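// run 5 | inverse folding | seed 20
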């Protein structure tokens, strides 16, 4: 999906120095590209084989809710601390720059037996692994993971025992000059990035 790829921009040193941030918000600013992406992701076997979708805070909500609507599947969310009311289940996870926690409403998780995980980007797989542990610990099944972007050199998918399908599997990430923005297609050189920030 060449046009889809061109809508993804990379920002250097955001939100911290040395981090290349992949911004997918350009996709939802092009209604036709966004529509086609959601149609494609909604028809995936990972979605078809699930009873419900679980999307990850925060940009995973954009794609997960649209897929939920198109595929007529219920959706629940995994959120960061202090964002959900009610009785929660929690799981901690580690990132390159520290630790964080994700929470799911226990009542919502208990309603369904199998879940498709949806997020915008797969890097090292820390957030997805956290969600997977929450699901498995509560006796539920994972049909797979759907993402828009996957940074292949980080091999995040190797952490999982379920299927992973990414619309744009990237073989590299670009390290940018300080304080500059480039299109995701503009670098002709294969470079391994230093680190990735996953919100």
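// decoded
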């Amino acid at each position: 999906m060449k046009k889809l790829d061109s809508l993804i921009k990379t920002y250097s040193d955001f939100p911290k120095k040395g981090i290349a941030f992949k911004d997918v918000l350009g996709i939802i600013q092009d209604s036709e590209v966004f529509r086609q992406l959601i149609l494609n992701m909604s028809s995936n076997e990972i979605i078809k084989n699930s009873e419900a979708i679980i999307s990850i805070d925060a940009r995973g909500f954009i794609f997960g809710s649209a897929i939920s609507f198109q595929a007529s599947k219920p959706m629940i969310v995994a959120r960061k601390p202090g964002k959900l009311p009610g009785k929660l289940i929690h799981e901690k996870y580690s990132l390159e720059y520290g630790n964080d926690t994700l929470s799911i409403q226990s009542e919502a998780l208990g309603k369904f037996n199998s879940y498709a995980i949806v997020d915008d980007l797969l890097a090292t797989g820390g957030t997805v692994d956290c969600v997977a542990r929450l699901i498995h610990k509560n006796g539920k099944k994972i049909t797979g993971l759907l993402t828009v972007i996957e940074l292949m050199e980080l091999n995040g998918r190797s952490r999982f025992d379920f299927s992973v399908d990414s619309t744009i599997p990237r073989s590299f990430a670009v390290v940018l000059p300080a304080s500059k923005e480039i299109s995701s297609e503009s670098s002709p050189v294969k470079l391994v990035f230093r680190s990735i920030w996953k919100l």
